[in-house]
Amino acid sequence: MSTDGLKAQVVFATITGNNEAVADNLVEILTDKGLQVTKSEISQTEPEELADYDVAFLVPYTYDEGSLPEEGLDYFDDLADVDLPELTYGIAGSGDTFYEEYYCMALDKFDKQIQKTGAKRAGELVRINLYPSPKDKERLTALVDAVLKEAQ
């Protein structure tokens, strides 16, 4: 799988640091595969920037009973207005299984929102309980592989 010249953006939101760890894992995996990677915090990022990338990974956390990250609400709202038919994306993020039916619900909401852009999702949503484990890194690697395969 040739990744020469492919550019990736990893957009994350975090309070506890768990999701930044998920984002850092993705950056490491992508970098190891030879991609140019930009990591950015969601409140410091505009959805239009995604048009400059071949692949993207959204890494939102779920707050309380299924709420989106407050600092990511503008990004979420603006995302629906961007046209990204060339983009392939994956979604991963941490949550807390304590919240049962609300566990990682923001991932589903971001998935529905970015689909409005015409972007193509590859791989399954990767739901991580709290801090990413070595097993979670394997799942993130599988997600990256699926996204890169689809982007070829």
From TrEMBL:
A GO molecular function held by the record: oxidoreductase activity, acting on NAD(P)H
Keyword Signal: no
InterPro entries in the record: Flavodoxin, Flavodoxin/NO_synth, Flavoprotein-like_sf
Oxidoreductase keyword on record: no
Flavodoxin-like domain sequence ranges: 8-148
Keywords: Electron transport, Flavoprotein, FMN, Transport
Domain of life: Bacteria
Pfam families: Flavodoxin_1
Cofactor: FMN
Family label: Belongs to the flavodoxin family.
Protein purpose: Low-potential electron donor to a number of redox enzymes.
PANTHER family xrefs: FLAVODOXIN 1, FLAVODOXIN 2
Protein name: Flavodoxin, short chain
Source organism of this protein record: Fructobacillus durionis
